[in-house]
Automatic annotation (TrEMBL):
Positions of region (Disordered): 117-178
Compositional bias (Low complexity): 120-138, 161-171
Lineage, opening ranks: Bacteria, Bacillati, Bacillota, Bacilli, Lactobacillales
Protein name: Uncharacterized protein
Entry superkingdom: Bacteria
Organism: Streptococcus danieliae
Length: 178
């Protein structure tokens, strides 16, 4: 199932990269679902997490009973269309992670949205000590960019490294994931 979720997330990132209407929007950084080395927990340790759709997940018209590349692509297209409607809610997200569920017997999805913790004046000391670990001259505003850009090889798919080449050869296979 983790590989299937990662395939859907990769397709969503590909759709966003190709969408001219999204060129001015920040790229969505998805955490991998197959986190063999538990790297996600260190990436999100100091971040707030909220579900994008509350109180329940968003239902899908696509049938996900077979976990194939073609069903992942169809799901990604439907999910991407729905996520574009929530783009303003995703603008400040550091990371996203797709979750598949069932709602009233139908396939559904939700997105975990991880954002920087909003600071009050009393909590600024913990944030400045985090920044000091990264660099003694880094400001709090720069820390966000440093932490995002220093994540290569940490177990999530970076849209910046995505190419605009088509993945149709892998998308059309009927390989099924668990």
């Amino acid at each position: 199932m983790d590989e299937f979720l990662d395939k859907i997330q990769a397709e969503i990132e590909s759709l966003q990269a190709k969408d001219p209407s999204q060129s001015a929007s920040p790229a969505w950084n998805f955490l991998t679902n197959k986190d063999d080395f538990n790297q996600n927990s260190s990436l999100v340790a100091d971040l707030d997490m909220e579900q994008l759709y509350t109180p329940r997940a968003e239902t899908l018209a696509v049938d996900l009973s077979k976990k194939t590349a073609s069903s992942a692509k169809k799901a990604a297209e439907e999910i991407y269309t729905k996520l574009k409607l929530k783009a303003s809610s995703l603008a400040d997200a550091s990371y996203l992670q797709l979750v598949l569920t069932k709602e009233s017997g139908r396939d559904a999805f939700n997105v975990k949205v991880y954002t920087e913790v909003e600071e009050s004046s009393s909590s600024s000391s913990s944030s400045s000590s985090s920044s000091a670990v990264m660099s003694s001259t880094t400001s709090d505003d720069d820390f966000t960019e440093v932490s995002r850009s220093s994540s290569s090889g940490t177990g999530f798919i970076r849209p910046e490294t995505s190419t605009s080449t088509s993945t149709s050869s892998s998308s059309d296979s009927d390989e099924e994931w668990d």
